[in-house]
Amino acid sequence: MESCLPILLHSLCFMSLVLQMSYALDSISAGENITDGQTIVSAGGNFELGFFSPGSSKNRYVGIWYKKLSAGRVVWVANRENPLNDSSGVLKLTPQGVLTLLNRTDGVVWSSNVSRSGQNPIAQLLDSANFVVKEGNGNDLGDAIWQSFDHPCNSFLAGMKLGIDRAKGLDRYLTSWKSTDDPSLGDFTFGLDSTGYLQLILRNRSVVQSRSGPWNGIQFSGYTQLRPNPVYSFGFVFNQNEIYYHFNLLNSSVPSMLVLNENGMAQRFTWVDRTHDWILYSSAQTDDCDTYALCGGNGNCNIASSPKCMCLTGFVPKHPSDWEFGDWSNGCVRRTKLDCQGGDKFLKYTQVKLPDTRQSWFNKSMNIQECKQTCMRNCSCTAYSNLDITGQGSGCLLWFGDLMDIRQVSENIQGIYVRMAASEVGSSFSGNPGARKSTGIIVGTVLSAVLLLGIAAVFTKYRRDGQIFGFSHQRRSEDLDLPMFDLTTLVNATGNFSEDNKLGEGGFGAVYKGVLKNGQEIAVKRLSENSRQGQVEFRNEVAYIAKLQHRNLIKILGCCIQVDEMMLIYEFLPNRSLDCFIFGLLRSSPYILIAFVI
């Protein structure tokens, strides 16, 4: 028994040493260092810190990367702007709690550069990938001397804060690598912009590339892909001291992170253990409509439309000729000026990413009616919305000047009320295409039914003759294939609807002579505001007219339904009396153009 005692004591000492070494693996104390070839590993084995060379580069950097995952993806780099050119680097923790990276000549290559010091500091790599310098007896990260999460590189990890800490004077944002071989500062940044109301903005140097839209209490209005999911939860904190966006993993065994790559794409990746690889989970930029202000001021981008850009209701292209060539950047201007004397109205849009909020004002305590009244009192105010849509909605967000970077989104999450001249707004009109379509269907269905009853009566009367207004009974059910004219084509053809090209004008609108690029002469009937009805009804009426080939009806070539314009395009009749042409216009329906032969 006595002979076993020394062995037992030796074993206990060995186990104690192993435990001490295991604890020391994730941290270094003041006076200790890490040399090239040495690493520390977080307690759970998720992350590793040490020296590395990216891609084909021979430069050496201090960084943090995934340890358990075979890909070994780097998530943080200390000396990204000052690489070492050999393996002589040493990372030290000073007694004051400052991390310093020294080269062969003991020159400081990088430093954590903190102003406050602590007693018995240690630098510890946590299982979240956060490299923290703290006092030896402290566990509160809020009291940390320094932490790498306050200085992100190109990766946004669970537990990080993307945003502003006013108390510490921090602005945390992502910066891309210059290339896959060079982690130095690239051209792209992605972070929270606090000018006006808060939104995430991706920039190429100083130029805005895309943005998230404002946070509405549930999500960013332009990131419809950001919704509850089985991988991570997310949230937004906005108080007196801090403003930041964050996310947390719902399952620690399924890592996920957002990376701003060297090409300026902000992409979320998730690890799939079955394939031992990262997969693209989502992207902040999904299509061309995510390009900032693609359609210019007061334009609306819809990726499902052709062309992608249209003006908001009541607005027209600022430079129509540019729109014809697919350059929408100059945007749209009001067709009717605002009254600003209390007579203006508001048009509600839904299913849109809210405009750029850098020219906005907000108030957290107002309700939506107070918000509307505040906007009405300021002639520069062009739109308003709830700040927070949770519950019954609360707060007020006002926009001033042109409404920039609006796009159509798939979900009806939040409404925005755009200020319009009263003449541009119907009694129960909504600016979004869905609502307009519903209104058009209701009106169009009623009027079309009346028209069909009339046609049916005429058909019954003339059935024995086998003709109805000049088209045969056999052909009356054929599908219509009516060309759609682009607005810019008609603008160019008519000289921007110049007075010199006006053939006449009546209660239903004006008729202009135009010449297409192929030399064909046309007559364009531009319906007036008072004669316009729903788009669905308009289409139905045109479909019926297109089938009528009576000798006293001018042949219809097509129509245009674009940028809140409704126009009919007819063949031009140079050999007939212009006076009678106009006479027929004045007495015809809003859709039918009659030529009286003399």
Automatic annotation (TrEMBL):
Reactions catalysed, as given in the entry: L-seryl-[protein] + ATP = O-phospho-L-seryl-[protein] + ADP + H(+); L-threonyl-[protein] + ATP = O-phospho-L-threonyl-[protein] + ADP + H(+)
Entry's EC annotation: 2.7.11.1
Protein kinase domain residues: 497-598
Designated name of the protein: non-specific serine/threonine protein kinase
Keywords: ATP-binding, Disulfide bond, EGF-like domain, Glycoprotein, Kinase, Membrane, Nucleotide-binding, Phosphoprotein, Receptor, Serine/threonine-protein kinase, Signal, Transferase, Transmembrane, Transmembrane helix
Top EC category: transferase
Keyword Nucleotide-binding appears in the UniProt entry: yes
InterPro entries xrefs: Bulb-type_lectin_dom, Bulb-type_lectin_dom_sf, EGF, Kinase-like_dom_sf, Pan_app, Prot_kinase_dom, Protein_kinase_ATP_BS, S_locus_glycoprot_dom
Keyword NAD: no
Residues that span the membrane, as ranges: 440-459
Gene Ontology terms for molecular function: ATP binding; protein serine/threonine kinase activity
UniProt binding sites for ATP: K525
Residues spanning the signal sequence: 1-24
Domain Apple: 340-422
Residue stretches making up the Bulb-type lectin domain: 25-146
SMART domains xref list: B_lectin, PAN_AP
Record-annotated EGF-like domain positions: 285-321
